[in-house]
Design goal:
heterodimer, A: 85 residues, mainly alpha, B: 499 residues, alpha/beta, 5-stranded antiparallel β-sheet
Chain lengths: 85, 499
Amino acid sequence: MSDALRDQIRDFILENYLFTSDTAAIGLDDSLLGRGIVDSTGMLEIIFFIEEQLGVKVKDEEMIPDNLDGVNKIANFVSSKRQAA
Amino acid sequence: MTHLVAAIEDQARRNGGAPALSWHKATWSYAELVGTMNRVSDALPVQAGDRVALLLRNSPQFAAAFYGVLGAGAAAVPLNVQERSTVLARQIAHCGARVVLADAAHVEFAALRDALADTDVTLLALELVDSENGCEAFCASLGTHPRRSPSAVSAGALACIIYTSGTTGRPKGVMLSHGNLASNASIIAGYLGIVPADKVLCPLPFHFSYGMSVLNSNLVSGAHIVLEDNLAFPQVLVKRLQDEGITGFPGVPATFALLLGRTQLADFNLSGLRYLTQAGGAMPRPQIQALRAALPQAQLFIMYGQTEATARLTYLAPDELDEKLGSVGLPLPGVEIEIRDPSGRVVPEDAVGELCARGQNVMLGYWDDAALTAQAVRDGWLYTGDLAHRDGDGYVYIDGREVEMIKVGAFRVSPQEIEEVLATLPFVQEVAVTGMPDALLGQAIKAVIVPREGAAPDVMSVKAHCRAHLAQYKIPKVVEFAAELPRTSSGKVQRYKLA
């Protein structure tokens, strides 16, 4: 996983859900749902972001907390999908 | 049945060991639920008629607190756990709550405690633990109190206040009586055929009327409610439906859109799923048909109502779906419905007018707002603000709403509430908020701001301000800046032109 990928994901979440550029506003391992940063609609938007901006298709069965509920989790998931491609 | 508490106590007497509510690793039996309800009643320093606010997310503890308040003869005010402390404190002050039962881990808890510091409101911090010892931890946080003698409460007494889409200056607290809650719950349980063997998966918040009706109608029937915290992972949810042998699932149109669009329903064995209910706004006809095709074994109940009618006013029976597709069905037993013109006269069949209803489920009124109550309830008839018509067989079809309200998913949002929050930004000269079409949620919120001269506002700071003061679903999806707002010749802002 690259730092650039992780930063891109974090910045997307900061800009679209926390409306700030302060990187301290979210921890890389924070649960997005648990902290109330996104709701279920926001999670769908993150999936669109992963598919449209990061170029990785998210299958229905891959929509699980371990892949999506946190900056590091998303970065790891995207990274492993890219490697597998 | 005139009281929910008595009906749930009956279930506990019949089969106290039966599961009532499951939440993560915790399952509370009916005996535990009733025992904890009584502990809550005993712990409350209240008299009959006092208001007790609840800041508790969906959990067995919410149910124990809610029915415990009712059992003490007080009125429960379940607050929206998505709201910020400013709104919560305002609603607590508006209803004059003596006590607030709050989740100590709630993100707004500290801010709310500060906001209530100079008032005489008692804030009880409660432990919500989702594991096996959740019941004991909750009871321990209540403390030990002498047993309260049961109080006789009339069916017409205030049981609950639900805040619905009001504004900062004018919160709308819908007052429901014990009789309102009990009659609607028993009718819903009747037409859904809920029995103790049923197991419903509930993702709907209990602080709104749909979720509350699911809670009440299942518990008075002795059924098992399994709680689902969110719908973010639809495939996980469908797997739960399968693995836990769920027999009933309530949803709103966006829920079913998610299941149809983001899961492989055919890959799961959902043969145990006996029924689905849909309320919270109109579901497009193609989606109804797609849902029936995907889950043919499940009976689909299309339902309609509003908080002011406790929850339900009409439903369309599953076997009538083909013939009456697009209808919300017939009035519930004991409910009368008329479609009236602006002068109050009943319109002919197929003509559109305002849907008015009368029955045991019609609210007592809006808390501390006689003028608004007099507008909504006249001669015992509830004027719903919904436009509708009836066909020759009496089936009801909803044609829209008379009042300007944005429907984000199943949430009703007042544009004025958002405008009031945005107007407090120093660079805002004028603002108007409207609904815009949204593929998933039906409508999303759009704000158009006229900035003061010389100001250099940015979208992010506007949204950050909203996030600090509004529940997440009320944050505008789109914020635009304009030189002026469209107005009528009389100066009224034309919100529909902004979408």
